[in-house]
Amino acid sequence: xxxxxxxxxxxxxxxxxxxxxxxxxxxxxxxxxxxxxxxxxxxxxxxxxxxxxxxxxxxxxxxxxxxxxxxxxxxxxxxxxxxxxxxxxxxxxxxxxxxxxxxxxxxxxxxxxxxxxxxxxxxxxxxxxxxxxxxxxxxxxxxxxxxxxxxxxxxxxxxxxxxxxxxxxxxxxxxxxxxxxxxxxxxxxxxxxxxxxxxxxxxxxxxxxxxxxxxxxxxxxxxxxxxxxxxxxxxxxxxxxxxxxxxxxxxxxxxxxxxxxxxxxxxxxxxxxxxxxxxxx
Amino acid sequence: xxxxxxxxxxxxxxxxxxxxxxxxxxxxxxxxxxxxxxxxxxxxxxxxxxxxxxxxxxxxxxxxxxxxxxxxxxxxxxxxxxxxxxxxxxxxxxxxxxxxxxxxxxxxxxxxxxxxxxxxxxxxxxxxxxxxxxxxxxxxxxxxxxxxxxxxxxxxxxxxxxxxxxxxxxxxxxxxxxxxxxxxxxxxxxxxxxxxxxxxxxxxxxxxxxxxxxxxxxxxxxxxxxxxxxxxxxxxxxxxxxx
Lengths: 281, 243
Known about the structure:
The complex is a heterodimer.
Chain A: E1 5-14, E2 24-32, E3 36-40, H1 47-54, E4 62-67, E5 70-71, H2 76-85, E6 86-89, H3 102-111, H4 117-130, H5 146-158, E7 164-168, H6 176-191, E8 195-200, H7 203-209, E9 212-217, E10 220-225, H8 227-230, H9 234-239, H10 246-253, H11 256-259, H12 268-280
Chain B: H1 2-16, H2 19-36, H3 41-63, E1 64-66, E2 75-79, E3 86-89, H4 90-116, H5 119-128, H6 133-162, H7 169-200, H8 219-242
Antiparallel strand pairs in B: 1-3, 2-3
Helix pairs in contact in B: 1-4, 2-4, 3-4, 5-6, 6-7
């Protein structure tokens, strides 16, 4: 399949100081443009390190990172342009909330671009409305819940209108309602044409949400493809201790005559519909 | 800006007016915070008390004199029979009282500003007053870190309590020292995280703050403030004229 890529990593090696093992070991992987990609892997598999390379915070000790087919040179101007086109939402929102209210914080990056105040206000208003943050706009940041902080951090990145948004464990520690709100927000961003990449170790979430999956293990790319392709073979995933999502696992445990040739359903609703059809037939 | 100007004027008055009026200012500014801004008594009292601790620490130096009272200076309280007699004079007591009144008044003006003005507005006012950008950025980062530190300290305290803690003075001291170390580590970790966050969000060496936007002042508050200032000035004039 011919695909356009937002970012491509070619043989990237990275070693944190004072560690024995490399965090990335000749990692070669590409992030397809316009898709909802999930980067799967255990803690320490290199997901966050990959993201820090994607925004130029870390530089490969070996190998290259390419954006739009051009290899990054890490010149000051190029880095500024990269960080405008690639947004990163950290796992801990406290890491990137800088100003004291959500409205001010969302406008933080925009003020650095020299945009006029009216345009900044309009951009902030629309982003905050999209993520359901309008009512919280003047509330002190330290009084927000974790879910609200995560959405504020996402709004700050979205306001810059990047072509690619990277999210490091966006749903960790969130209650089901906050998780749903976060995912709805991500879907809306994606519908507007932004490439969205999420690092997670939640197989169920990745299976339900993503349309492209990258599996990392010990700093290497073990597999990449559509969810159906990735979860078709349980053995490889089990070999690296990831296992199957619940729906896929249930699907493969059904008698083969009912499932033969069919990929497992992606949502509980689809699964219910298939089961109902089976029970009625 | 209006609130900052009001607080600044009250601060100036607190320095210059009679001690009785300083007490009036203290009570008036307290009422703005507690009755109008609904700041909890406990929080206000705790902060006020903590700040007064420094005054209490300096009081002995103001009050206690060593040796024998000079001619014409009466010791209010004396401890004799010591190799070096100690005494407290009426002048010392008066000085300490005046200082208490002035400190309370100035502090209440400062608390008024602190409790009732959002931090971002305070920064905007300081920027209008041409405070150097680097100072504003430092203030902003320190303000963010206050809450991060508070969260980290609270988490560590809770974990210590849940694990039962240790008994005995020495063990507690050791534990507190370990906690301070952990807090430092945690803070450094957060500092590293925040600097990464700043970079990814397009920080180019300067945090550009939102522009100042003046908010309308409710008429009833403005009337009350102007009337209060007028009464204070008139009362001070009357006290001067009375000699």
